[in-house]
Amino acid sequence: MASTGQLASAARGSVAFTAALKLADWVGSGREVTKRGVPKPAAAVELCDLLGIEPHSRKPRSALDIAPLMTVWSVAVVADLIEQVGDRVRVGPGLRVWREGRPEEVLEAWVRCAQELLTPPDDMEEDDLARLAALVVLHEAEDAVTLDDLRLAIAEFFGDAGLDCSCPDCTSPEALRYADESGSGRPPAWQVAGLLSEFGIAALRGDEVTPTLLGRWFTALVFRDGAPSPDLDAATLIAAVNGLPHRLKLVMSRPWLSARTPAAAARDLLAAAEHTSGGLRLTALALLDECGPEAEPAWREWATKDGFGAYARSWLSQRSGTALAEADKAWLTVDALITTLDELPPELPEEVVAEAVHAQIGTGVSEALPRLAASDHPDAPRLVALLTDPGTPRPRPDRAGVGYELEIRLRYVENPPVWRRLRVPAELTLGELHHVVQVAMGWDNSHMHAFEHRTGRYGTSDRDLGFRDEHAVTVSQLLAKVGDKILYTYDFGDDWEHDITLKKIVPSSDIACTAGEGACPPEDCGGPGGYENLKAAVTDPTAQDHADLLEWLGLDSGDDFDPTTFSPETTTQALNRTRH
């Protein structure tokens, strides 16, 4: 095992930090930056020349467009090598630590930087997930791995699909993007491996990637020491790893599984799985598979139970090669289809599952319905109703006097993100919720809109558009449990998509905004992409459309533009005014 001194020395010698130190020396006593805290275009080109980076243009619109430079800049910022004060940056306190600090301090700074830039805890994007996949491969590798190993692992993280099939139905677009290395330019696996190499985590030689001592230490820190505690109960473990890619889910669960005998782990997981649904149940079943054949005593115990015991009887029948009872097949079929329904994205209607079932077995559906109805599965009536009459919302529950805490988050908008946490009556119709969303977000209700849910699309009743009447269904009919979602789209030209998620059910039916972040984008600015361009140009006097945008926004200066402006109190007042 490498010593702290050896690890710190490797961290100091990494390409990324060597470049970040050069950048800090360049900053010196101070350099001007833009409103977004990055070098101005001319300075960005100067920095590229210093660091040996070839910019795509000698006259970039923004430093943000030069990805390699932004990587080095991010390292310098996160490691506190530089800090922003007003409209300037200067050398930060981390520079002294990096050059004169004890090995423990250096290693701590490197870890903080690597974790934030390579494995961000929230809102992972495609490139973050690709890096995480590569780190998992390096963590599990005993020796060098090939770029093909990385490529396949990345594709698995995105799709968990059969990579021998290249059709979009079998592999997600993201998986295909990373699996296909036939295009021009450096393959994505090279890009991922190259970045890990710059951090000193791996050595890249030809098509082989070898984890370094620093890399092995770091991946152990992330995947072993950073895994859920073995002391957690099974339900908490399942929730902690739910939503992770399959391979990562198993890696992060190993310390918990290893702390128990396979049978004991299976008993705990089975007990927890019985009370889960949707993705949580799938996660529990995946972890049960990891328990292996030595878990048989636990499966035998559960095989005596009704309902969820069907999973145990199925496991035993596969081991023994015997036939599974028809009643158990029916129960498991209902459970599998209900799980699929619960995991559908909010923009997909439940009919897609019903249509797939009908397409698969045709007239056999009518023959299967009585068996499914008699399965004693608690959700059998819901499934039978869907297969008999697809697209029917849940019956209206009694939610009088009950409140919902909803999170409304605008998709594809960052720096800052735009979201609101609202408290509303559960009995609001979707038509009423539309007006609440408009006020809470800051829109002016000048464009068309629609809600999308598994049961269909809702809006102003329109036969041509296929919208169901948004005033005929309540929020509680579509959002029944915490975690349920619907998609709200505003302005079919700009396509502002909002995820609306039920976060909490509360005993209060007033309307209020309790939290949020980010100002509402201007109407008609071109959607998320146009808004990003607007934010960059309006604060950059050298941008070609800077003056036009200021005039369009009615501003005298880019300093008057603040995308972070938001007040829950002011929003609550506006919501209350609209009710009276």
Question: How is this structure best described in words?
Answer:
By secondary structure, the chain is of the alpha+beta class. The chain folds into 5 domains: 115 residues, no CATH class; 100 residues, Arc Repressor Mutant, subunit A; 91 residues, no CATH class; 55 residues, no CATH class; 128 residues, MM3350-like (Structural Genomics Hypothetical 15.5 Kd Protein In mrcA-pckA Intergenic Region, Chain A, Roll), CATH 3.10.290.30. It contains 26 helices and 14 strands. It has an 8-stranded mixed β-sheet with strand order 11-10-9-12-13-7-8-14. It is globular. The chain starts with a helix and ends with a helix. About 5% of the residues have low confidence. It holds the Pfam family PRiA4_ORF3. This is PRiA4b ORF-3-like protein.
Blueprint (SSEs and pairs):
Elements: H1 4-12, H2 15-27, E1 31-32, H3 41-51, H4 67-78, E2 82-85, E3 88-91, H5 94-100, H6 103-118, H7 126-140, E4 145-146, H8 147-159, H9 173-179, H10 188-198, E5 202-205, E6 208-211, H11 213-225, H12 234-241, H13 246-258, H14 262-273, H15 278-290, H16 296-302, H17 309-320, H18 326-342, H19 351-361, H20 364-373, H21 380-388, E7 403-410, E8 419-425, H22 430-441, E9 449-453, E10 456-459, E11 468-469, H23 475-478, E12 485-490, E13 496-506, E14 512-517, H24 527-538, H25 546-553, H26 568-579
Helix pairs in contact: 1-6, 2-4, 7-8, 7-10, 7-11, 8-9, 8-10, 13-15, 14-15, 14-16, 15-18, 16-17, 17-18, 20-21, 22-26
